[in-house]
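Q: Hi! First time doing this. I have a protein sequence and I read that you can turn it into a structure. Is that right? Here it is:
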Amino acid sequence: MLTLMNPRVPPLPPDEWDDFIKANPYNVFATLARHPVLYREWRRFGGALLNGTLPARDRELAILRTAHHCGSAYEWAHHTRLGLAAGLTEQEIESVRQADALWSVEDRLVLQVADDLHYAGDLTDATWAALCDRYDEVGRMELVMLVAHYAMLALVLRTLRVQIEE
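A: Yes, that's right. Below is the predicted 3D structure, encoded as structure tokens:
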């Protein structure tokens, strides 16, 4: 994971925060809010993914594996907390970083989706077939979009050098 310093785009000062940032005082929001239109639409899209149809455990496994692949210390820090709240153990969260860790078939599938998308930008036919057995069409689409979104967000966070809150 990369340690990020000296933000290229500083977060808004607290006196410019909207009600959402006041309730969620994280640098990701305070930084992206500098572009009000994109910030508003990104929050809507990200919120739809965080409150979608996927089980919380699956969602957080996919996000953590993506954060690991993308070297996003910011995403890792925040989604470690959310992963614990979703029922992942600390050992499972650490195992997300290990390619050879033992997982249930269900968890392995979620991690494989993140791996395939990271390494190939696509899913293998075998991974897609397994997804079809486990998720409905909406769930399959949502999982792919979730991984893609967090890969994009990792790039933005790293490029803007958004710092993890103390």
